[in-house]
Amino acid sequence: xxxxxxxxxxxxxxxxxxxxVCLRGRAAWEVFGVFHDHGVAMxxxxxxxxxxxxxAQATDLFLRVKPDAVFHLAAASGPNFCQMxxxxxxxxxxxxxxxLAGLASDCRIPFVFTSTDLVFDGEAAPYTEEDPxxxxxxxxxxxARAETAILGRHPDAVICRMSLTxxxxxxxxxxxxxxxxxxxxxxxxxxxxxxxxxxxxxxRDAAQGLFLALEKSGSGVIxxxxxxxxxxxDFGEVVTRVLGRGRESLKGCRRLDIxxxxxxxxxxxxxxxxxxxxxxxxxxxxxELEHVLAQ
Length: 295
What we know:
- The protein is of the alpha/beta class.
- The protein folds into two domains: 183 residues, NAD(P)-binding Rossmann-like Domain (Rossmann fold), CATH 3.40.50; 77 residues, Alpha-Beta Complex (UDP-galactose 4-epimerase, domain 1), CATH 3.90.25.
- 39% of the residues lie in helices and 18% in strands.
- The chain has ten helices and 13 strands.
- The strands form four sheets. The protein has a seven-stranded parallel beta sheet with strand order 3-2-1-4-5-6-11, sandwiched between helices. Strands 7-10 form a two-stranded parallel ribbon.
- 46% of the residues are buried.
- The mean pLDDT is 95.
């Protein structure tokens, strides 16, 4: 007799990360993907529309699906937008996240929440899970607040702090990689920071890490970053090599050269040793870029 797959509820299904996680999860789970503004279609995934900031809607959706686990990936993830619209973005980045964590806690099911490396101020990298948070932007503050509130409501929840993620775009959302590639292929100038460092992670590795966190990490905070610390400018140079193009269009600049609403930390590289110890095995940056760009 075939075993019925367990139900997995994934919010933010039309987003870049959510879409990639839905694609990975459908092989082993009955996946229910939730979107708000931008509908998508995926074979093997049940797509549902819902406003997670509306508690009645979110509760009704949760009770209809009756999930066995939840990945809460939906977010307003643009730091500049969050800086300019703190009240609007708080409702999805904090309030909705805590409400869903409460529903999962009441049903005694696993809850995985994606946070960010931007909970740190960038002055003491590489960061471990034990390092105190010190966000410099509204977005980082919102994620830090959500982490604390979620664990207070659902002590067995898993908080996955994600690094800068790139990969195959969803039908409704891109990673930061796609505009860079289009500009390079069009011969247009690309300005990238020489003084901002991250540990970039491909979407397929991020999805692998999230499912690993669900299955093996227990509860609490875990870091999911790539193995290589690199500036955005140096990342761009790797992209040019993979594309087989010269670097003439790449222009280095500093964070202070481009005025933006949200402050940008200098170096929020993550130490992901804990995840590596559980079997998390992200690929080398160039290999992952070759895989993405070949598609």
